[in-house]
Task: inverse folding
């Protein structure tokens, strides 16, 4: 065990505080030093350009930080009619601008996601790059998704800038959702990998870079290229913190065949590890001492190389018969026995062949088989994503993909759950990009990309259940979750006061606004819409069970299996109904501001709930 010499000083409080800051804001440290300007910006204190000292800059970067921290007033509206097993599934499919969606998920899913995988636009000049808008994010979102999406050609003059402005705030927000032992895998090609790496170094900290994996997306040479044929893409891997440990691979016969037992050690097969250190004796003088062969008595001193182990460890290995001095026992320098019984799994390598992780042709064929036609270009193969899941998740992990495309990630999650009896949950987020009306995709009934993703998940679930015998009449009941809840990004269900200026001659306009605010909930929204918005804003995950109750003829909603929250939005409740609601509510109750006939009823309810220890909120 490594020992550190005491310096005789008391605790370094400044260093301790820096360590705390580094744990919270790794992106604010560069070469071990705290960047005060960046820390201030992260906390909402924006500074003038003259004082900014960022090394990685582009036009709009500061606005990206503001945009990521700008609070959203939007909501996610449930769509049971487009879902599968809405009342029981833990999986989510969310239609909407992923920036707004990520903001809305911050409270309910903060540090709950184990793995994020995204396959964002590569910025090839032909793919869609979303332009964000400060003024009215939801209005802008609806405008963009009602028209054909646009590409980001190099001739625009802001080629890299627009892509960076799209990616940076989204990765910033996504990082907040990762658990301390979480990890993100990002697919990318040669075009933006250098910029993406810089973004991730800032967001996650350079020390949390884990790997840049080359994935063999193609296994044949193409003579259609002018110079080099591109056969690989990349997966950038960043951990949330040092708590992440990659899941190792199961050992193979080939790996185990490297072990033998030439001296018939009762502990079983082993392989020898060198006792020589790469460092020279002058570099590691503490690892230089004489060693004695126990059979010949010959003493050997280190010459060109120091020893790999300390003298104390050498003596422990010798007494435990873990040193091998050759077949005849006369070697001058031993090897150290490393037993197969102590061997761990195999570490993944940073080159994934098409045999190991699939290729783009397989991804295309797989999706075509699911949907009955080629309706989406270059989907990732589910095998690639299953490998990512195997290395980065546990069986009960939450998996997020906020550029979900054709929903390959959801397909892969369900496949892996079926294979290893896992209970992983997926959260898919996708902008409903329209497809050209003259395309085969549109003719097949898919008006936007979200319709492709949802239909793929439906068909994948049915296929997986049938192949496992769980979806056939007379077979055991369904064991794996192949359902999903659909939510769609929209403006809040609650009315927002119109604060535009009114002149003294516009009293009718003012009275109209006041009348409109009497009923806080918008008339075209359902109670379920509002229930899920309350859950989001209070930090309750969307997969929690929602049960409708009848309390003295009044509709109420119980949230969670054990009713962690009770919501009632009915107006003019009777006193006895309010008391019954208090009986149902274990600790938290939410009512509408119209639930009370008058101020007296509200006051009586407040004291009743206070005496019972129930926290009360109203909207």
Result:
């Amino acid at each position: 065990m490594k020992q550190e010499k005491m310096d005789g000083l008391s605790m370094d409080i400044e260093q301790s505080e820096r360590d705390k800051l580094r744990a919270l804001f790794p992106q604010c440290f560069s070469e071990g030093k705290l960047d005060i300007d960046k820390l201030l910006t992260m906390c909402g204190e924006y500074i003038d350009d003259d004082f900014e000292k960022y090394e990685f800059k582009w036009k709009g970067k500061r606005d990206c930080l503001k945009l990521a921290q700008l609070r959203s007033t939007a909501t996610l509206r449930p769509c049971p009619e487009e879902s599968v097993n809405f009342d029981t599934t833990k999986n989510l499919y969310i239609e909407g601008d992923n920036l707004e969606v990520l903001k809305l998920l911050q409270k309910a899913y903060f540090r709950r996601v184990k793995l994020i995988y995204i396959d964002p636009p590569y910025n090839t000049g032909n793919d869609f790059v979303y332009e964000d808008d400060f003024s009215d994010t939801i209005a802008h979102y609806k405008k963009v998704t009602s028209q054909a999406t646009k590409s980001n050609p190099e001739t625009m003059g802001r080629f890299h800038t627009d892509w960076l402005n799209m990616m940076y705030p989204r990765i910033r927000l996504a990082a907040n959702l990762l658990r301390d032992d979480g990890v993100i895998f990002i697919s990318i090609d040669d075009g933006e990998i250098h910029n993406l790496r810089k973004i991730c170094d800032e967001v996650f900290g350079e020390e949390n870079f884990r790997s840049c994996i080359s994935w063999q997306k193609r296994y044949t040479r193409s003579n259609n290229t002018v110079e080099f044929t591109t056969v690989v893409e990349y997966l950038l891997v960043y951990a949330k913190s040092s708590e992440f440990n990659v899941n190792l691979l199961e050992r193979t016969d080939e790996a185990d065949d490297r072990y033998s037992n030439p001296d018939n050690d009762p502990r079983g097969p082993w392989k020898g590890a060198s006792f020589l250190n790469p460092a020279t004796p002058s570099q590691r003088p503490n690892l230089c001492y004489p060693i004695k062969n126990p059979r010949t008595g010959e003493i050997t001193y280190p010459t060109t190389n120091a020893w790999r182990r300390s003298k104390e460890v050498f003596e422990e290995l010798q007494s435990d018969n873990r040193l091998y001095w050759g077949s005849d026992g006369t070697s001058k320098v031993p090897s150290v026995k490393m037993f197969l019984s102590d061997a761990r799994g195999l570490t993944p390598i940073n080159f994934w062949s098409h045999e190991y992780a699939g290729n783009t042709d397989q991804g295309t064929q797989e999706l075509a088989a699911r949907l009955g036609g080629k309706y989406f270009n270059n989907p990732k193969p589910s095998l690639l994503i299953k490998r990512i899941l195997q290395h980065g998740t546990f069986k009960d992990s939450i998996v997020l993909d906020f550029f979900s495309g054709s929903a390959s990630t959801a397909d892969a999650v369900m496949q892996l759950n079926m294979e290893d009896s896992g209970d992983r949950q997926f959260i898919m987020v996708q902008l409903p990009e329209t497809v050209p009306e003259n395309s085969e995709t549109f003719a097949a009934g898919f008006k936007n990309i979200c319709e492709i993703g949802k239909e793929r998940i439906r068909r994948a679930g049915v296929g997986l259940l049938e192949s496992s015998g769980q979806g056939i009449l007379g077979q055991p009941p369904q064991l794996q979750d192949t359902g999903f809840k659909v939510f769609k990004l929209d403006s809040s269900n609650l009315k927002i006061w119109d604060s535009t200026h009114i002149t003294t001659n516009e009293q009718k306009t003012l009275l109209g606004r006041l009348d409109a605010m009497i009923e806080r909930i918008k008339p075209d929204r359902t109670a379920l819409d509002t229930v899920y918005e309350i859950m989001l804003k209070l930090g309750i995950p969307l997969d929690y069970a929602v049960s409708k109750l009848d309390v003295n003829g009044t509709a109420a909603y119980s949230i969670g299996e054990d009713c962690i929250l009770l919501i009632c939005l009915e107006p003019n409740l009777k006193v006895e109904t309010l008391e019954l609601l208090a009986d149902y509510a274990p600790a938290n109750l939410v009512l509408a501001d119209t639930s009370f006939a008058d101020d007296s009823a509200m006051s009586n309810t407040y004291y009743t709930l206070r005496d019972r220890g129930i926290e009360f909120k109203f909207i």
Observations:
- The first helix runs from residue 13 to 24.
- The chain is about 35% helix and 15% strand.
- Confidence is low (pLDDT under 50) at residues 1-11, 472-477, 507-517.
- The radius of gyration is 30 Å.
